[in-house]
Design a protein that fits this description.
Blueprint (H helix, E strand, L loop, with lengths): L1 E8 L3 H8 L2 H7 L3 E8 L2 E7 L8 E12 L3 E10 L3 E15 L2 E13 L1 H5 L1 H28 L1
Antiparallel strand pairs: 1-7, 2-3, 3-4, 4-5, 5-6, 6-7
Helix pairs in contact: 2-4
Length: 151
């Protein structure tokens, strides 16, 4: 499965960078996220559920950051597992570019793989769901970062 996305975040690049590295901000932005725990500057765990048709699997994912070029880009690798979800692995390159002093363009290129019963039964639905999760995440991320900027 491969995905790409381009999103406008209504905040300065440095603030977006800091938010993309803050598990508590990410917890607010990840749909149905129950936990986001920082282990180090480059590693954290997120526990969340998602809707896949009538099934609602729960996934615990270890997320690692590498190839860090602050505040411009990094590579995010994720490996997660859950009873219904099976095993999911993914890797995304995230790039931030200033559109102007108050706006950031976030572009990502991701590839991933899911193994297990759900993946075998509904691979097209998994891809569609992953894209919807990404869209929902970045929409919510923009809202959360913009709200925190006002505080």
């Amino acid at each position: 499965m491969e995905m790409t996305g381009r999103y406008i975040i209504n905040s300065p690049r440095q603030l977006v960078w800091e938010a993309m590295n803050d598990p508590q901000i990410l917890k607010q932005a990840i749909p149905r996220c129950d936990e986001a725990i920082r282990h180090s500057d480059t590693e954290f765990t997120a526990v969340f559920s998602f809707n896949l048709g009538f099934i609602k699997p729960r996934l615990q994912s270890l997320i690692s950051l590498s190839e860090i070029d602050a505040p411009n880009s990094y590579v995010m690798a994720a490996e997660g597992q859950g009873k219904l979800a099976g095993l999911a692995k993914g890797r995304a390159r995230v790039q931030l570019t200033e559109q102007d002093a108050r706006t950031t363009v976030l572009v990502f290129q991701a590839e991933g793989d899911m193994q297990g019963t759900i993946a075998e039964m509904a691979s097209k639905l998994v891809t569609k769901t992953a894209q919807k999760l990404a869209d929902d995440f970045f929409h919510r991320f923009d809202q959360v970062v913009s709200e925190n900027r006002k505080l």
